[in-house]
Automatic annotation (TrEMBL):
Residues 277-304 form a coiled coil. Residues 15-217 form the Cation efflux protein transmembrane domain. The lineage of its organism: Bacteria, Bacillati, Actinomycetota, Actinomycetes, Pseudonocardiales. SUPFAM superfamilies: Cation efflux protein cytoplasmic domain-like, Cation efflux protein transmembrane domain-like. This is Cation diffusion facilitator family transporter. Residues 234-301 form the Cation efflux protein cytoplasmic domain. It comes from Pseudonocardia spirodelae.
Length: 342
């Protein structure tokens, strides 16, 4: 089975983020109670949501590494996507909603009392340093992963099958922006004497969290439904099969990510008509061994010999890709069959 992706670096990234958020959350809560700042209370909820998120991500890392069994023959790799989806919901429910409600309350009441503003500034400054440390670790890992796959950071974030590091990166980025918003809210409240600014900052923090929750939720939804493998991998597999002796054409190629660094492959191949039944069997077995040796991500491989002119297969391929296959992520995301049947 392919590597489950639960690398020590991923675990370190999540643990560092969880520790930082837990400590920061306590400080923000105390600062919010001392100063009466709605923005600080919103940030405390933000940190609480992030801490809960990291706990859910750690649960996903642990559970997704279980080996395949009779009940789940394709393994538990998608467990990580499920817990990452719960983490996104956690951000919205425990962080975004609270911050929005607190912001609306502060704006509606027009409260102007603010005490010990310096406490809020000190906590925000310390929080920025701690969040920044966690953010730097997440960025370092994302850049390392993108470099290893030979793609840009943006492309890696769009196509990766590991939601753990992506979640931490987005959360930490939102946390840094939220701290700046809270600082602006506290500062404008102190300068103008109006609590409306504090409320606006809290409202913006809530909207920021809602946006991040939607982004992460949508990403994990796609992974749970079953997304195609990275375009670069799909192209490489197609070229490998098309250039193999005995393969006349790659009629159809289906891939699905069943976990981090775990890809299910189903290839329908038009083989040389001169091959006997026993030669076809031996060739399929040899192809599977060579595919596993060439592509470590492949977890389960299914090879099906079919004639390229089969009308049912042609209809299914045409229905899936259309006459001009559309690229949804990057060149080659939905490659046309090698013989051009689609």
């Amino acid at each position: 089975m392919a590597d489950d992706g639960a690398t020590p670096e991923s675990t370190l990234t999540v643990l560092l983020a969880m520790g930082a958020n837990a400590a920061i959350g306590v400080l923000k809560l105390l600062a919010g109670l001392f100063t009466g700042s709605a923005a600080m209370l919103a940030e405390a909820a933000h940190s609480a949501a992030d801490t809960a998120t990291e706990a859910l991500l750690l649960t996903g890392l642990r559970r997704s590494s279980r080996p395949a069994d009779r009940r789940h023959p394709f393994g538990y790799g998608k467990d990580r996507y499920f817990w990452a989806l719960l983490a996104a919901v956690s951000i919205f429910v425990s962080g975004g909603v609270f911050a929005i409600v607190e912001g609306i309350r502060a704006i509606a009441s027009g409260e102007s009392e603010q005490t010990l503003a310096w406490v809020a500034y000190a906590v925000l400054g310390l929080s920025f340093l701690l969040e920044g440390t966690s953010w730097v670790q997440a960025v370092r890992q994302v850049r390392s992963e993108a470099r290893a796959e030979g793609v840009t950071v943006r492309q890696w974030l769009r196509t990766t099958d590991d939601p753990t590091v992506v979640s931490v990166l987005y959360e930490d980025s939102a946390a840094l922006v939220g701290l700046l918003l809270a600082f602006a809210g506290v500062g404008l409240h102190q300068l103008t004497g109006s609590g409306v600014w504090d409320g606006i900052a809290s409202l913006l923090i809530g909207l920021l969290l809602t946006g991040v929750a939607y982004l992460l939720g949508n990403t994990n939804k796609g992974l749970l439904i079953g997304r195609q493998a990275a375009p670069r991998l799909v192209r490489s597999i197609r070229d490998f099969l098309a250039g193999h002796d005995g393969v006349s054409a790659v009629v159809d190629l289906l891939t699905m990510m069943v976990g981090t660094d775990q890809v299910l492959l189903c290839a329908r191949l038009d083989l040389d008509d001169a091959l006997t039944a026993s030669e076809v069997e031996r060739m399929c077995a040899r192809l599977e061994r060579e595919l596993r040796a060439e592509f470590a991500e492949l977890d389960e491989i299914f090879l099906e010999p079919v004639p390229r002119e089969d009308p049912d297969v042609r209809a299914r391929v045409l229905g899936r890709y259309g006459t001009a296959p559309v690229d949804h992520t990057a060149p080659g995301d939905h490659p046309a069959p090698a013989d051009g049947t689609a």
